[in-house]
Specification:
By secondary structure, this protein is α/β, with parallel strands linked by helices. The protein is built from eight helices and 18 strands. The strands form four sheets. Strands 8-12-7-2-5-6-13 form a seven-stranded parallel beta sheet, sandwiched between helices. Strands 15-14-16-17-18 form a five-stranded parallel beta sheet. Strand 9 and strand 10 form a beta hairpin. Helix 5 packs parallel to helix 8.
């Protein structure tokens, strides 16, 4: 891996300034669901705190008071902006982006930051476009208020990116920063500026898959299956093993493209980024795009009948065996 330095050119229509640690003011967009703060937001808060200066959290929703009270007690948060409106109920990007832009315009934030989750990736680029600035995506390190580190080419190279935009719009890779803790004194709260456009889109419906297993994004143990599973029915053995050890179940892109499982389970460059304590790859060859989504896992175990499979190059423990024999035996012994 090698470092690249790339300088982003500023948009010409805005006056440019440069943020230093002394005048940094960061707005953190809080992701939440069912009155709970998303774990990835806690990682984004840690990143925001590393910028220096104050960190203001923005909580939007139909009834955000419970979440706002929780966020006010997080270490590093100096103030909480609360936007209460039915338009924010389903996290539609048009409404949230407009809210971010108005908050920046009225309160002069130098940095807007969110987690690099589906939530953040849906909203932050739109906000950046409305402000005519470049977004800095999926950062894994912060060198200064205007210089950041991020992976490129599926993690095979690391770019050091310097932005000359006066407003930095950033998404954070959650696995690269520890989760923020709590603080004794709660931060103050106030109403957020009103969004200029809240009704550009309309929520119609959503289909949710409910499971008692841990969420894939935040699970400490993950078992993933690849093309070697041969069918969706065979994923049943992974679910059985996962239930034994309290793990979430994921999949490679090859397994998703083959129709074995839903794309919500996909791990990799075009799926979810995970870094559990234990990652078990079953029947996964180890393509670059998959490794980009799980290589930061603390312990990696690979089960594959091909001893030359690339997955063994990153695995801490490898078992060259037929998965249809090895997985049932492993489940039986646990």
């Amino acid at each position: 891996m090698f470092a690249l330095r790339r300088t982003a050119l500023p948009a010409l229509s805005l006056a440019r300034g440069y943020a230093s640690a002394g005048n940094v003011s960061t707005l953190l967009l809080v992701e939440h669901k069912d009155n709970k703060v998303a774990p990835s937001t806690l990682n984004a808060l840690t990143a925001a705190s590393k910028l220096g200066g104050s960190v203001t959290a923005l909580v939007a929703g139909n009834a955000p008071d419970t979440v706002a009270s929780e966020v006010a007690k997080l270490a590093g948060v100096s103030k909480v902006l609360v936007a209460k409106d039915a338009a924010f109920t389903h996290a539609l990007p048009e409404a949230h982006a407009s809210l971010l832009v108005e908050a920046q315009k009225k309160l002069g934030f130098t940095h807007l930051i969110a987690s690099h989750s589906a939530f953040g990736k849906n909203i932050m680029p739109r906000a950046a476009a409305l402000m005519d600035v470049a977004q800095i995506s999926d950062i894994t390190g912060i060198e200064s208020a205007d210089t950041f580190v991020r992976p490129i080419y599926a993690g095979n190279a690391i770019a050091t990116v310097q932005s000359t935009d006066s407003i930095k719009v950033i998404t954070v890779r959650g696995t690269a920063f520890p989760a923020a803790g709590s603080q004794d004194a709660a931060a103050s709260s106030e109403d957020a500026p009103a969004a200029a456009e809240k009704n550009l889109s309309e929520f119609v419906s959503e289909t949710m898959q409910k499971s008692d297993r841990p969420e894939l994004d935040s699970a400490t143990r993950v078992i993933s299956g690849g093309r070697g599973m041969k069918s969706g029915e065979n994923f049943g053995m992974l679910y059985e093993l996962a239930d034994k050890i309290g793990a979430a179940v994921g999949a490679s892109r090859a397994a998703v493209d083959a129709g074995f499982v839903d794309n919500s389970l996909q791990i990799g460059q075009t799926g979810k980024i995970v870094a559990p304590e234990l990652y078990v790859a079953v029947g996964i060859s180890g393509a670059i795009q998959h490794l980009a989504g799980m290589k930061d896992s603390k312990t990696i175990v690979a089960i594959n009948k091909d001893p030359e499979a690339p997955i063994f190059q990153v695995a801490d423990y490898g078992l060259v065996a037929d998965l249809f024999t090895a997985v049932p035996e492993l489940t039986k012994k646990l």
